[in-house]
Amino acid sequence: MNKSDRTAALLEVFAAEQRALDASGLPASLAVPGLRVPTVPLMHADGTQVASDELFASSPTVIVFYRGSWCPYCNMALRAYEKDLAPALRARGVQLIAISPQTPDGSTASRDDNELSFTVVSDPGNQLAAAFGILTAPSTEALAAQLSLGLDLREVNADGTVELPMPTVAVVDEAHILRWIDVQPNYAKRTEPGDILDAVVQITRTPGTADSTPGLTSITSRMSELAQTLGVKSCLVMRSDPGSMVVAATAGAGADFYRVGDAGQKAATGDAEVPLYCERVVDTGDAVFIRDSRDDEAFAGNADEVEFGLTNYFGLPVRNTEGQVVGTVCVLDDSAHDYDDRAKHELEMLRSGVEAIIAQDPSALSG
After folding, report:
1. Given this model, what pLDDT does residue 6 score?
2. Residue ranges making up the domain that contains 286
3. Higher pLDDT, 153 or 4
4. Are 23 and 120 members of one domain?
5. What CA–CA distance (Å, rounded) separates 365 from 216?
6. By the 8 A CB rule, do 56 and 174 touch?
7. Could you give the CA distance from residue 214 to residue 357 in angstroms, rounded to a whole number?
8. Same structural domain for residues 222 and 313?
């Protein structure tokens, strides 16, 4: 067999293994959020031992299980996490730790070759990986192919076995409770940095914490005060897109389910028969007040009522400098009540603040 044929045969062995991994799917033993992570011995890159609970004690932790420094897919993922994830996690007080079953020398290679700023440790015997239910092993054919390429897992793994963790990212809180996990059975695939950060943001945010696009951060405190003053569940700034209404800023208890970037499909362009509250504001260009949607012929059974129990609504249109309606400001609640002149004035002031921002930065609603 010539070199070209040999290379093609080896590539087919690994491709066949990846197809089999895709077909097998997630392991039945996979841990689920709520698991209390057990304490197991780990090893730093310098060979010193450290208990896992010591590593996870100081702050929420993102754990990256990877196969080893010999794995090109692992190295690409670790470099991507260094560039696109680690800085954002540090800014939120969340640590990032990479864990593999290889020897400390392998951890050193992973750290130095990929220029990683975050902690890299070994999990001798895959004890932590086993607790997460993510252990696997290469196929017999793949092991033979690896050996032909000069890789012997029994030599690079700290425990002398060929077992490996499936590429996995998990988020563990300070109490050592698993809060989120994503597993890629096929080692050629990895969890995207953006998906990890989204999970961290949701897990670490204080319930009801206001949030917004970068351009609207200056008004979130006012929105929180308005939600509290009016005694409503939610205060929102919404952007109007051709087929949907999109959350641009959110405050009040409803911030737990109205998240920045969430979109509700407009009835005019979708299958829904009942329009969104804010959709009507945009369509008419006028204020809309719904005391109780359940008693309103046009809005009974709307999405906010059905999904979140918010039956009370008051919203105003937001216009750009050309007078076009580009969004709304609104408040929603789960009980029927009216809004007096003072409440209306407060919402109008919020609208004026938003319009002043987009007059200077038309992209503020979009981030």
Report:
1. 79
2. 211-360
3. 153
4. yes
5. 7
6. yes
7. 11
8. yes
Average pLDDT over residues 260-274: 82
In a domain, 171, yes or no: yes
Who wins on pLDDT, 210 or 167? Answer: 167
Q: Which of 162, 217, 169 is nearest to 194 (CA)?
A: 169
Length of the chain: 367
Token pair for residue 334?
């789960």
Using N-to-C axis directions, what is the helix angle for 72-84 and 104-113, rounded to 10°? 50
Whether residue 104 sits in one domain with residue 9: yes
Q: Is the domain of 276 the same as that of 138?
A: no
Residue 366 lies in a domain: no
State whether residue 10 is helix, strand or coil: helix
Inter-CA distances, 204 with 97, 172, 179, 216, Å:
17, 11, 10, 21
Residue 367 belongs to some domain of the structure? no
What is the number of domains present in the chain? 2
35-72 confidence digits (pLDDT tens): 999 999 999 999 999 999 999 887 899 999 999 999 99
Which conformational region is residue 115 in: left (phi greater than 0), alpha (psi within -120 to 50 degrees), or beta?
Answer: left
Q: What separation in angstroms does the CA of 283 have from each of 279, 280, 288, 316, 326?
A: 6, 5, 11, 11, 10
Give the C-alpha separation, 266 to 76, whole Å.
40
pLDDT band at 159 (very low <50, low <70, confident <90, very high): very high
For tokens 């050592």, name the residue. 176
Within a domain: 104: yes
Q: Look over the chain and give the mean of its residue pLDDT values, rounded to a whole number.
A: 93
Within a 13 Å sphere around the CA of 105, how many CA atoms are in the beta-carbon half? 5
pTM for this entry: 0.62
